[in-house]
UniProtKB/TrEMBL annotation:
Pfam families: LytTR. InterPro entries: LytR-like, LytTR_DNA-bd_dom. This is LytTR family transcriptional regulator DNA-binding domain-containing protein. It comes from Wujia chipingensis. GO terms for molecular function: DNA binding; phosphorelay response regulator activity. The lineage of its organism: Bacteria, Bacillati, Bacillota, Clostridia, Lachnospirales. Keywords: DNA-binding. Residues 16-115 form the HTH LytTR-type domain. Transmembrane segments: none annotated.
Length: 119
């Protein structure tokens, strides 16, 4: 069964179990919660029927990186990153939502952002 869509599309289930193909450009972040993985966009939350590591393998070339053991963020949708206590980072997404980068992933996330061209 193929759950991942082609190239830059991800297959996910909406609130009423309808199946959607979501462009990776629209996804702010993926988060694993218990045994489930969700894709968060500005308007919707979709359940993805893959493990987070499987999603990471598929979207690696589309500017997603780990923010924590349970989260992948779309680095193209980050508006700012600030250091907070405990060597963690507060990530502000371009829709105003804040997520936290864990100690283990904060510095690698910063490094991956440094090479990005500021537009």
């Amino acid at each position: 069964m193929k759950e991942m869509g082609d190239a830059n599309k991800i297959t996910g289930y909406g609130e009423h179990r309808e199946l959607y193909r979501i462009s990776t450009d629209e996804i702010l972040y993926f988060e694993a919660v218990g045994e489930k993985v969700f894709a968060y966009t500005e308007q919707e939350i979709y359940e993805i029927k893959n493990r987070l590591y499987q999603i990471e393998e598929k979207v690696n070339s589309y500017d997603f990186t780990r923010a924590s053991k349970s989260m992948l963020v779309n680095t193209d949708r980050i508006s700012s990153i600030a250091s907070i206590s405990g060597s963690r980072g507060k990530i502000m997404m371009d829709n105003g939502e804040a997520v936290i980068a864990s100690r283990m992933y904060y510095k690698p996330l910063l490094s991956s952002m440094k090479w990005k061209k500021i537009s």
